[in-house]
Amino acid sequence: MDLTALRTANPEHWTKAAAIRALTLDAIHAANSGHSGMPMGMADVATVLFEKHLKFDASAPNWPDRDRFILSAGHGSMLLYSLLYLTGNPDITLEQIKNFRQMGALTAGHPENFLASGIETTTGPLGQGISNAVGFAMAEEVQRARYGKKVVDHYTYVIAGDGCLMEGVSQEAIGLAGRHELSKLIVLWDNNNITIDGTVDIADRTDQVARFKASGWQVIEIDGHNAAEIDAALTKAKSSNKPTMIACKTHIALGHAAQDTSKGHGALTDPEQLKAAKDAYGWTHGAFEVPSDVLDAWRAIGARGSADRVEWEERFAQISERKQGEFRRAYAFEAPKKLSGAIRSLKKQVSEEQPKWATRKSSEEVLKVVNPIVTETVGGSADLTGSNNTKTDDMGIFLPENRKGRYIHWGIREHGMAAAMNGMALHGGIRPYGGTFMCFTDYARPAMRLAALMKIPTVFVMTHDSIGLGEDGPTHQPVEHLAISRATPNTYVFRPADTVETAEAWEIALSAKETPSVLSLTRQGLPTVRTQHKTKNLTAQGAYVLAEAEGKRQAILIATGSEVAIAMEAKAKLEAMGIGTRVVSMPCMELFAQQDEAYRKRVLPAGAVRVGIEAAVRDGGWDRWLLGERGREAKAGFIGMTSFGASAPADELYEKFGITAEATVAKVKELIG
Amino acid sequence: MDLTALRTANPEHWTKAAAIRALTLDAIHAANSGHSGMPMGMADVATVLFEKHLKFDASAPNWPDRDRFILSAGHGSMLLYSLLYLTGNPDITLEQIKNFRQMGALTAGHPENFLASGIETTTGPLGQGISNAVGFAMAEEVQRARYGKKVVDHYTYVIAGDGCLMEGVSQEAIGLAGRHELSKLIVLWDNNNITIDGTVDIADRTDQVARFKASGWQVIEIDGHNAAEIDAALTKAKSSNKPTMIACKTHIALGHAAQDTSKGHGALTDPEQLKAAKDAYGWTHGAFEVPSDVLDAWRAIGARGSADRVEWEERFAQISERKQGEFRRAYAFEAPKKLSGAIRSLKKQVSEEQPKWATRKSSEEVLKVVNPIVTETVGGSADLTGSNNTKTDDMGIFLPENRKGRYIHWGIREHGMAAAMNGMALHGGIRPYGGTFMCFTDYARPAMRLAALMKIPTVFVMTHDSIGLGEDGPTHQPVEHLAISRATPNTYVFRPADTVETAEAWEIALSAKETPSVLSLTRQGLPTVRTQHKTKNLTAQGAYVLAEAEGKRQAILIATGSEVAIAMEAKAKLEAMGIGTRVVSMPCMELFAQQDEAYRKRVLPAGAVRVGIEAAVRDGGWDRWLLGERGREAKAGFIGMTSFGASAPADELYEKFGITAEATVAKVKELIG
Fold this sequence. Notes:
The structure is a homodimer. Chain A is an alpha/beta fold. In chain A, about 45% of the residues lie in helices and about 15% in strands. Chains A, B: Its cofactor is Mg(2+); thiamine diphosphate.
C-alpha cells in the first residue's frame, strides 16, 4: 500500500482519517488492550461517511431524525469513539479516549449504548449490529409512514466485518432487509480478508457480493481507501430502492507493520511500530494530540447537521400537538395513560366470565385490547403466528406496499427477529414484541441477553412453555428455559397462571422502560384462577397469596403458570384432609425478589411446609423460595422436571413426570411427616 | 397437479411413494397431530433416494459405512418412520407407526436418534440437521483419509425445508461445506414455497440457488415429483467435486385438499379429505395397510445393500487388527486404555511444578498429552484458536488438501461449529471438541441443548469464563452461562481450579459416552491449588475437600475455578484469626449431586457457616449447596455477581464486584456473628 500516494492525492481527507488512526493507536497503547486494525482500516470509509453523508448534529446526539450509525464490528470501538470525540459529542471527551477500557470510562472495550449518546447499540457479539440495523430501518419505515417524511426521513448505516457476515444471524438479517426492500439501510463491509485465525479463506470462501444479491440487495464494490469511490458509492446507495451493501476493500491496520495480518486485528502496542505507523501517516503530533486545524475540521463536520436539525424542529412543531405528544411519549417508552384502565376492565371481565383459555390465547385477548391503545407496538412471530397468538386484526402486515403495517412475518428466524426487535426499541418510537416457541429461546438467546444488557424493553412472547405442548416432544418442550431467562440479569420472566395474570404481565411489560420481558405462555387451556377482581396489579408484586389456608396453615404451595391450577386442586384435596394450605401464585420471581422483606415474609412466612410446582427444572430459582426466605430443607419439596420431556399427549406427560395434584398432596404429607 | 398422469407414467414408483403418503395420513389421523404435508410432498424424492441411491442394509442399520440420511425438516418425521418401516428396520415396526406420538413409542413427534436405529440425529429445531450433516460429511472425510476408501466411503443425504434454509445456522453450514468441498454431502431442498404463516415469500425472497452457488455448491433444479429427474440429479450430485444442493420443486400435501397451502403443513386429519387423497393416489387399502406386493418391493429395497455390507465386512476384516480395534473403540466412545495413565502422570508433574497458568493454557497442555493418545479427537475453534488454546501441533489442519487434518478452523460460527461437532459425534468414530468464548454459549445454545438431549459426548471448550477476561467488557463476560449449562439436563459443567482439575475434567469428558461436557476455563492465570498429587480423579466426585480446617471447623468455603484461589487466600486469613475454615473445590456440581448422601455429608457437614464463591450469578445452582445439603439461610452467603460485568482490567473488576478474599472473610465473620 503506497501511503504517500494516498496522502498526497487527498491531503485534507487523509489528515482527518489519520486523526482516527492516531487516536486508535494511542488509546490502545494506553489501555494495553483493544483492537487496532479495524479502525485503522476503515478510517477512510468512516471519514467520508461522517463528512459527506451522515445526517447528525453532534450537539444534539439524540435528535430523533438523525441518521443512525451502527458499528456492527464492535471490537473496532475506537473507530466510533474517535468519531464521537472528533465531531464533538458531549459525552466522549478526550479524557474518555485516554481512559479507553478503564473502570468507569464511557469508552468500554466494546460500545455500550447506555453509556454515552452517539452509541446507537451495544455490539461486540458479532452479527448483532447488522441485525439490529434491520430493526432500525424497519422502525424508520413504520415511523415515516405514520408521521410523514418531513418528520422521519433518515438512513441507517452499518459497518460490518467478516465476522458479522460469517455469523448465521447475518443471513437472517440480509434476507429480511431484502424482502422488505429496506432501501435506507446501507451496510459498509470491511472487506479486509483477515480474521483472528488467519485469512478469511481458511474458513470461508463465500462470494459475499453474490450472496447479498441473491437476497435482493444492491451491491457496490469499491476501494475502501479511495475517498472519491467511497463518496460515489454512498451517493448511489442512498438513491437505491433496495438495501445496499458496499464492499469496501481495505487493509486492516493500514500503515502498520502488522498491516494485512491477523496480528493487526488485535492490540498494536509496540511503541516503535506505533511511531513508524504515525510517521507513515505523516502524523507528527504527540499522543492523543489532534492539532487544532484538524480538530476544527472535524468539529465542523459535527456541526454540519445543526441547521438541518433546527429546521426539523420547526417542521416537527407544525404537526399536531397530539401527534407530537404521541411521538415523544413513544420515544420515552411511556405507556399511554389509557393502558391501566383498559387492563383493569379486561381483568374485571375475565374474572367474571372465567374463560378456560391457554395463556397464549389470553395474551391474544390482551393484545386485542392493548394494540389499539399502545399504538407504538410492532408485533410479529417467527412463522408461528397462529400458535403464538401474536397478531391482532387492527395491525396490518408490514410490507413494502404497507409501511404502516404493525405486524411482521419474521420467517423462521428467531435470532434475527430478536435482534431486529432490539434495533426497533433502540431506534425509538417503537415498542416491539415477537413470538416463538419457548424452546427456541435458545435461538434468540444472544439478542435476548443483549436486550437485558442494553436496558431496552423488548418483549419476547414465548408460547408452548412446557411439556404441556404434548406430542411435539422434547425437542420442543422447554425444561431449562425459565432458568435461563431468570438467571439473566435485568430480565422479567412472567409465567402467568390465567388471563388476569397475563393482562397484568403485559401491563408491566408495556410500561417497562429499561427491562426486557419474557412471557412464558401455555399451549394448553387453563382455568381462570383469579376469579375475584382486584384493581391492583398483583403480578407487579411478583408473588401473592392466591388462596389462603382454611384453618391452621400447615402447607404453602408455590406455583407458576399452568401449575397454579394444579396447586389449587391439591389445596382442595389437602383441605379436605384437614391440612390448611395456602396457595401462592408466583408469576415473576424477579419482581417478588424486589419486594421488601415485610411483604415477602407475609407471603412466605416460616413454619408451614413448602412445595414448589413448576413443569420445569428446579434450577430455575426455586431453591431460594423453598430453602431460603425462612424455608428449610427438611420441610420443602419440588414438583417439576428433572430431565428432558417426551412425545405424548400433554395429560399423559403430566402423569408420567409426576406433576399432578396427587403428587403434590403426597409430597406435602411426606414433608409434614 | 395431475396425479393421474404421474400415476400412469411410472406406476411402480408411484405405488411405493403412495405407501409413504398413506402411512403418513393414517398415522397422523390416529395421533390427531403431526405434520402431514412434508412427507406427502417429498415422498417421491425419498422413494428414489432409497430405491436407487442410498447405501444401506435395513437388517444392519448401524453398519458404519452406510450412507447417512438426515431429515433436517424433522417435523416431517412420518417420512422417516414410513421409510424405516417399509424397508424393514428392526425397530420401527407397524405397531410403532400406529403409535406415532404416543407415550413410549419410538416414533416420537420429531425424530429422536436415541430411540431407534436408522434415526441418525434428532431434528425438529430447524437448521440443525443440515448443520449436523456438515459434521457427518467431515467425519466421513477424516475417517476415509485414515482408514482408506475400502472401509469408509459413503454419502450424507439431507432433506431440508424452507425453514432450515431461513435459520441463520444454515448459512454457517453452507459456508463450511462449500469451503471444505464436502462433495459427498447432498442436500435435497423441499422447495414447496409454504411455511406455517403462508407462502415463503411473505418473509423471504432469497434466490436459494444463487445463495448456495455463492458458497461454492453445485446446484441442480428439478421437479420433485419426477422420478427420472430425481434419479438423474442424484447421480450427478454423487460425481461432483462440490457439495450439491438439489432444489426439488414440490407440492406440499400432494393430492390432498390442503395441497399447496399452509394448512397442508400441519395435521391433516379430516376423514373425508383423507379418503379423497387416498383415492387420488389410487390407494384402496385400509388404514395402515400396505399390500404385500408393495411391502415386498420396499423390503427388497431394504435388503438391496446387504451384499455390499457383507463385502464391506470382508474388507474391514482385512485391515490390521490394531486398526480394527481402534475403529471399533472410537465408534463405541471408549477411551483408550493409555488415557488414565497419561492424565495421572501429567497431574503428578504439575502438582510438583505448580505452574501459574490460565486454565485455558492448562487445557492446551492437557490436549498436548491427550491428542496423540485419543486419536479420534477432532478439535477446533470458532476463530479463537490462540485464545481458546484448542490446537496442538500434531493435529494438522483439516482442509480439502489435508483430510487427515484433525483441527478445524470453524470461522466465526459458534452455532455451526457446535451443530457440526454433534454431527461428527453422531456419525461415529470421532470425538469432537471445539472452543469459543464462554459468553458465546448463547450462539451455540440450540446445538448444545441437542447434544445433551441426543446423549452424545461433544465437548465445548468455553474460555474467558468470567469478568476475569477484563477489558472486553460485559458483552464478553459471562455471568449467567454457568447457570444456563447447569440447568440443562445431561450436561457436565466443569469449572476447574487449576491444571490438575483441568486434566481430570478432560479425562471425564473424553471418557463420557452419553453426556456432553462444558469446560469453563479462565483467561487469567491461576496458581496451582492441587499441590499434593493424588492418583484418584477427584473431579469425578464433583466436589471434594481441598483444604481442611485447622482446629475447629467454623466455616466452609465452596468455590469453583478461578475463585478457588480466592477461597484459599480467605482461608489463610480466617485461620490467622482463629476461624477454622474448610475449602471445598466444586469443579462439577452435576457429578457431586450424583454422589451418595454419605459422601456429600462428609464434604458438606452441618454446623459450619458456608460461603459460596463464584464469579457468576448465584442462580447457577448455588442455593442447593448453601441452603440445602444441611445448610441454612441464616448461616450461608454467596460471593459472586448480581449484574452484568464492566470493561476494566480484571483485578479491578474483582475488586469492584467484591469477589475477593477480604469480602469472603467479611462474609464469614458476619455469618458467624
